[in-house]
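Here is one chain, start to finish.
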Amino acid sequence: MNTSHLNHTPPVPAWHQLLPLFLSISGPLVLYLFTIPRTVVLEDDGLFLMVAKHLGIAHPPGYPLFTGIAHIFMQLPFGTDAFRGHLASAFLGALACGVLFGCARLLGASVWAALTGAWAFGASEHFWSQAIIAEVYTLNALLFFATYLLILKALRAPDSRTWWWGASISFGLSLANHYPLMVLAFLGLFVLALPVWRNVLPRLPELILLSLLSAALPYLGMVWRSLQNPSISFYGPIEGWQSFWFYFSRQGYASVDVSPSAGWWDRWEFLQWFSVEAFWQLTPLGFGLALWGLWKLMQQLSLTVPVSGILIFLSNSVLLLFLLAFDFDFFNIGVFRPYSLVCYGLLGLWLAIGLDDFIRRFIKNPEFQASGTVTIALLIGSLLLFQNLSKNDRSADNFAEQHAELIFQLLPENSVFFVYGDSETGPLGYYHYVEERRPDLELFSLQGLVYGNRLFPARSSKHSKQEALRQFVNNSTRPLFYSVDSEQFSHGQGIRHYGFLKEVVRGGNPTALQLVFRPEAETYFRELLQQQPKDRWERFRRNKLLHQYGDFLGYALLGGDPELQKKVRPLLPLAESNFFSLTGMIEVLMTHRAQPSLLQIENWLKLAESLQDETLDKERQARFAYLQGFAAFLGGHQQEALEAFYKSARIYPHPENASLSALQKLGRQIPE
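Its structure:
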């Protein structure tokens, strides 16, 4: 009798293996689809949507791989252009969760534990926030964990060329996306491969070559595309090796990455902030299980897996903080927070290992182990949704669109608008260059960045830029508008102030200001005061806009037009309810009529002090202390003025801080 079939284990159906992988990807993707913004938002969203649409060149180092992928998504036949661009990040983020699931399975986690780790990572606040806008960080996470997974596979078959080639290509592609973060992770990946170094060493030349080729090809495509002068190109054509190196090495961002006013205390505050964020990203329960999982990995015979993970975690957080020199403030926290997404992914990986070991230790019956894992997974998932859904549901976010609609409404036909900074260049550029709103307008960058119609090379001297702008203003017959202060745009002509934008008055007196009250601007000002955006970038932008309108109200108070003063009088109590609009009025009075308005200024300064909140960056805090010092000096209280100036200098020891020159004029020593 043939009994061989009695000992034969039936093969596991393919769908049994693929279904969990599908769930690890589809779960986060569904979450992202429900919360994706349908229109442009801030950060670099507008820039990446523009470069994706026009296959242009993003800011350094160019991100050619993400640009190409997002360009493909922009060809989809449904949704808005912004939705399609955001969908690229969402899809890449969901794939990153799927690869993380695969890593957890390779390290021995059960299916449900691995799903829990992948889903927790996908629903973590910071990763989720980047997966629903056009940004490069979900692709960075995907390529990192793909490299990590391929090395884990190669460790099981060290003589197989396939896995090493795959890891090498994946790492090379990552360098064509966000190479600084991947370079920081390299040591950890190197340690991961150490157990089989004898197998890798003979192949090292071919692996290095594969990585370099994988990185070089997208960059070559970027250079070629830049020479075609696309509509959107951050610096313009990349001509020659020096131009490419300037772009690739991010030399233009040296002043952004390192602030002269940032010190070791800022780094320490960032480190404390990151520690708290790491504790909360996967919930405290998830963080505890991640520590358990890391300890479990440390108990294994080979320490290379946990040591490599720890090195990568520290390099993408602590080491990065020490390499950068950001001022620790509300806005820069928003800038830094996506840099450490890989760290949260590692926590998700360790969570899967820890959860699996926890269940096996405390639930001995195999029949109940799966249900125990599912229960904890549901608990962590529910906590993450409760904790993060309100923060990351941006499906109805139209903050940038409202501002763009106001600007387009105020601008007359066939006019020119000069943009300045990311918050204008990206959103307004998106609506003009992608959605093609107001085709009669022309946008120019006051910095010579992003738009292909630049008036001067971005790397021109300050003098050359000013001369080029003045020449354009003198020769153009079109209506010219801008929104920044005279420090950013000194055109030598008269100015007509509309509240949220200004018009160049040719032949007008540069020292005289014409004020025009627009009901649309008043309505927008009232709406801004009522808004409380949750996103740091939007809150920061809202504050600047409120300060802008406060500036307009301050000039209206100084002017002699009774009709205008009658219109703005109902707005004064509203402006006095917000720190930024109030200080906008204070600065105008202090600049143009300080002594006669001293009592009003002092009263407003006391009120403004009570209205300060966590959104004030160090520069704004220092500026306010300077205003207090200047008012005290005008009032004859020199000691009080000195104390305020010194306070300002300690808060923001930047060369541009007006308190430093005030102390010099008073013959006082400037604090170091």
